[in-house]
Write a structure and sequence with these properties.
CATH topology of the largest domain: D-Maltodextrin-Binding Protein, domain 2
Largest sheet: 9 strands, mixed
Number of strands: 11
Order of helices and strands: EHEHEHHHEEEHHEHHHEHEEHHHHEHH
Organism: Kribbella aluminosa
Shape: globular
Radius of gyration: 21 Å
CATH architecture of the largest domain: 3-Layer(aba) Sandwich
Pfam families: SBP_bac_1 (PF01547)
Strand content: 5-15%
Keywords: Signal, Sugar transport, Transport
Number of helices: 17
InterPro entries: SBP, TAT_signal
Distance between the termini: 37 Å
CATH class of the largest domain: Alpha Beta
Number of domains: 2
Family: Belongs to the bacterial solute-binding protein 1 family.
Length: 426
């Protein structure tokens, strides 16, 4: 169940290739028509409220049946699951403008959803368990001090590597970006490339690299956070990695799929924790994990901690009932939360207490990934808009693939980000 590295549209796999957030929902004005997925009032349920719960289409087998099973088990409302293949983002954008859309839905929070009054605050249902969520999972769903969503799954993105190949070459797991570049070169042979970071050359590394250089997309006081010597140097290192001829390009599958490392095409791969079961099946115990390496000893490594979140639509005719259902499923039902995170790929349950008891996360590379996420995880800022993400992605393309001057490209991207911030906050 990969989460987003946002802003490339709403194919679940493609969604992972950029940095940004949910499309500006208010920009779409078409109302959602036809089948809303919500059962007709009173249809077989007496006086129970009827709720429609929307999901995008997950690729993992069993996920749709699991979502339907959870909904059926809820006795205080008639909950119907709407499973949406294709362009979920556009359908959701339209649906949130209408009372015929979802009551409950999954997404990632964008400040536009709050400013357009499309979601309701959920502080009351999470109040008693706030401390059981990681700070980042609260922050990514908070605007102006109010919490608007309950995290459903955590999807860390890290570098997995073949232990045997590093051992054979006498290479220790990289701790800095220079270590990573050096290791990738040494591990490259006429049959195996040192690392795979995506067929686009590594655009998904932009935000983790920024964090590992001491920067951020936005500062806490809503200013661009990606200028300065550290980010300039780090983005230049991403180009150095790309130009080293040690990066796999043209893989049959992209970085969100473990095919490249499983088939022996690379020694290291940037990918999400969701792929761990498939990698373990192919590689057994020959699998290690590191975060994105730090720029140098004065900085910390980084893990992109993505995820999906459950929201309640402000247009729902049954807001209170929808909130009650969200609390029941994503706060109270620990067994279902563990099932959702770990029976269909590997993910981290957002409730710390649930993750701590999950047997599949207690050992090996899964336990290591959990620890790295706790220590070095970064989540999305809801004030980071799609337009900012596009500018950031264009900056990365020019630097990584074209060798453009990082300082100049950063300055160009900052102009767009500042214009967006001015629009949002004045």
């Amino acid at each position: 169940m990969p989460a987003h590295v946002p802003n490339a549209g709403w194919s679940r796999r493609d969604l992972l290739k950029r940095t940004g957030g949910l499309a500006a929902l208010a920009a779409l004005t078409a109302a959602c028509g036809g089948n809303t997925g919500r059962p007709s009032s009173g249809g077989g349920g007496g006086s129970k409220p009827s709720l429609s719960q929307w999901y995008h289409q997950y690729g993992e087998a069993g996920t749709q049946q699991a979502a339907q099973k959870y909904a059926k088990a809820y006795t205080d409302a008639n909950v119907t699951v709407q499973w949406t293949p294709g362009d979920y983002g556009t359908k959701l954008s339209s649906g949130l403008l209408s009372s015929k859309g979802p009551d409950v839905f999954e997404s990632q929070l964008n400040i536009g959803m709050v400013k357009s009054n499309q979601v309701v605050a959920l502080d009351d249902i999470i109040a008693d368990v706030k401390d059981d969520f990681l700070p980042g999972d609260l922050a990514t769903n908070t605007v102006d001090g109010k919490i608007y969503g309950i995290r459903m799954i955590i999807d860390p993105q890290v570098i997995y590597y073949r232990k045997s190949l590093l051992d054979k070459a006498g290479i220790k797991p990289p701790q800095t970006i220079d270590d990573l570049i050096s290791a990738a070169k040494e591990l490259t042979t006429n049959k195996v490339k040192g690392i795979f970071v995506g067929n686009d050359g590594g655009l998904a590394l932009g935000s983790p690299a920024l964090w590992a250089a001491g920067g951020d997309r936005l500062t806490k006081d809503h200013k661009p956070g990606f200028s300065g010597d550290g980010p300039v140097k780090m983005f230049g290192k991403l180009h150095e990695l790309y130009a080293s001829k040690s990066v796999l390009l043209g893989s049959p599958t992209d970085w969100t799929d473990p095919g490249a490392i499983n088939q022996g095409l690379c020694a290291m791969q940037w990918i999400g924790m969701w792929a761990v079961p498939g990698m373990q099946k192919a590689l057994g115990d020959d699998l290690g994990v590191i975060p994105f390496p730090a720029l140098d000893a004065s900085n910390k490594p980084a893990v992109y901690s993505g995820g999906w979140t459950q929201f309640v639509s402000a247009k729902s005719p049954n807001v209170d009932a929808a909130k009650k259902f969200v609390k029941w499923l994503w706060i109270d039902q620990a067994a279902d939360q563990e099932d959702w995170s770990l029976s269909y790929g590997f993910h981290i349950p957002p409730r710390k207490s649930v993750a701590a008891k999950a047997a599949k996360l207690q050992s090996g590379v899964a336990a290591d990934t959990v620890k790295l996420t706790q220590d070095y995880g970064h989540t999305d800022d809801p004030a980071w808009t799609p337009k900012m993400g596009t500018a950031f992605g264009d900056m990365l393309t020019n630097i990584i693939k074209k060798g453009a001057d990082p300082a100049a490209e950063i300055a160009n991207a900052e102009k767009t980000v500042n214009d967006e911030l001015k629009r949002l906050f004045g």
